[in-house]
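2024-03-11 09:14:02 INFO worker-7 job=invfold-0412 stage=load source=structure_tokens
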């Protein structure tokens, strides 16, 4: 019996390839249960939401990216801002302040070896001082409002509450956007007013080698602006250009929309704004750290520097010890004017 079942099973296997030769088998296959084909009615909707359709969808939203409902990079932008820019930017500013306090505590202010002479030398013209303080005033207001917008939420809400912070943040945003339009104008004025004196001169490398007089022996000779001040000037120019360009993009969304049309790497207007916002914030934090160091050097570390930008004059001994080549030049011009 078992042998009979085996031969019947083997015969059935051999007959399977012949099944397709009979019309009845094909008819039977056609009458079998059809394949389930029930497409998801929401598939096209979600492709449109994610911006994957060839034909852009239309919405009731007006303005830029009106046909885009989902920004897939928004979470990455928020994470970069909250988890990297804010904590690391705060750390950088804190480190700069600690370095300043440490240097001042160890080194103390730079004093004149010969003391003040009582003789004043004209250092900066009225035009130069006006441009300097215009740029400084704009930078201070923009820096304070920018820091409030960047760090205010985690720092101020626990102190003043959400309502008060909302008012302060809204006012800071309006002031920041308005005065930001004037900053590049002041930057251009500063550039043309001071660029001639901030080009490289013979002796600048020696000034750097001596650390501005803090390393080695001997006097670190300098012209009207020493090597450090020239570095500050050019960093101000380049950082100012970067922060102005990114600021204008954030102020005028039409620029970001134009960038999308010429740069295929950006698929949405919002992506340009997010990238620009991060770059703007990074430049701002570095710029503020640089200016804080400049204020410390001019006001507290090298005494007598500030008077050149307030009264336009400095003590003659200060000029001899810190900018000897410029002092010699000024004295030569004075002697020529006195000559008959």
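2024-03-11 09:14:09 INFO worker-7 stage=emit residues=340
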């Amino acid at each position: 019996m078992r042998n009979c079942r085996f031969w019947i099973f083997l015969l059935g296997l051999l007959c399977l390839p012949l099944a397709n030769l009979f019309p009845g088998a094909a008819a039977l296959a056609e009458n079998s249960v059809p394949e389930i084909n029930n497409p998801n009615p929401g598939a096209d909707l979600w492709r449109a939401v994610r911006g994957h359709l060839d034909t852009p969808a239309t919405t009731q939203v007006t303005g830029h990216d009106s046909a885009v409902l989902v920004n897939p990079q928004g979470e990455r932008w928020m994470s970069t801002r909250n988890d990297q820019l804010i904590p690391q930017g705060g750390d950088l500013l804190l480190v700069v302040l600690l370095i300043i306090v440490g240097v001042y505590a160890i080194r103390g202010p730079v004093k004149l070896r010969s003391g003040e002479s009582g003789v004043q030398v004209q250092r900066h013209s009225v035009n130069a001082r006006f441009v300097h303080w215009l740029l400084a005033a704009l930078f201070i207001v923009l820096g304070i409002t920018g820091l409030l917008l960047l760090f205010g939420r985690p720092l101020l809400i626990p102190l003043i509450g959400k309502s008060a912070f909302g008012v302060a943040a809204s006012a800071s945003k309006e002031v920041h956007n308005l005065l930001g339009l004037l900053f590049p104008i002041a930057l251009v004025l500063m550039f043309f007013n001071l660029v001639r004196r901030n080009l490289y001169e013979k002796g600048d490398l020696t000034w750097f080698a001596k650390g501005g007089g803090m390393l080695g022996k001997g006097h670190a000779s300098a012209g009207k602006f020493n090597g450090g001040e020239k570095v500050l000037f050019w960093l101000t120019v380049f950082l100012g250009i970067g922060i102005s360009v990114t600021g204008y993009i954030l102020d005028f969304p039409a620029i970001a929309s134009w960038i999308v049309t010429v740069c295929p790497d950006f698929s949405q207007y919002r992506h340009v704004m997010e990238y620009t916002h991060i770059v703007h914030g990074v430049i701002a934090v570095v710029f503020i750290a640089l200016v804080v160091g400049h204020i410390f050097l001019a006001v507290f570390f090298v005494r007598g520097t500030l008077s050149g930008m307030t009264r336009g004059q400095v003590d003659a001994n200060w000029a001899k010890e810190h900018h000897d080549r410029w002092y010699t030049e000024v004295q030569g011009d004075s002697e020529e004017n006195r000559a008959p």
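2024-03-11 09:14:09 INFO worker-7 stage=report msg="The first helix runs from residue 2 to 15."
2024-03-11 09:14:10 INFO worker-7 job finished
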